[in-house]
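Hi D.,

Good news: the full-assembly prediction came through. Inputs first.
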Amino acid sequence: MRIDIITCLPGLLVGPFDQSILKIAKEKGLAEVNVHDLRIYTNNKHKNVDDYAYGGGAGMVLTIEPIDRAISHLKSERDYDEVIYMTPDGKKLNQNTSNELSLKGNIIILCGHYKGVDQRVRDHLITREISIGDYVLSGGELAAAVLADSIIRIIPGVINNESSALTDSFQDNLLAPPVYSRPAEYKGWKVPEILTSGHEKKIEDWRFNKALEHTKKNRPDLLD
Ligand code: 6GU
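Then the structure:
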């Protein structure tokens, strides 16, 4: 899979994709993330990517020209399955969407900024609009990093233990059960005995019940 991110603040995205799982995915040739500076696609001498909104009102708008040029340039090199716009008024990201997107080949992600992008970008160039939650970030970059991470980590082979991504919170609409590691007792705080019993079936039941209990308490909406 290849993810191309178009942004006017590429510096915000240099760190995330060179670490841990995302780095491993790249080294294994399973997923590659490329960050493109929108300013490169401007043709005014100040490299402006934004302008005033028609009709007035506060805030600048990302203009259509550099965005269209950036997307056209990428599309001239390969086909894309999706052109996603990151925006707080998009459809809220969930595990189902990440699972679905992890099966795609190539994806473009456009990061919003200022008061947003010219609506014609959304009407004609974008296939999907995604938000990562009901709060506002100063730009789409961190949201794009969140989306890319959630997609890439579940590509088969990226995480060593393949079953590991399947036992994540949300994969079965349940939050994950608690986990413990050595030592079995620390400062008098003990690991639940069942987990050291070696009784597989009982451990599985215990984990399911804990997951259910945890979900009822923290996210009852997932059980509706
Ligand atoms: Cl995708 N962008 C911005 N700017 N804020 C957000 C968001 C996206 N998702 C939640 N808040």
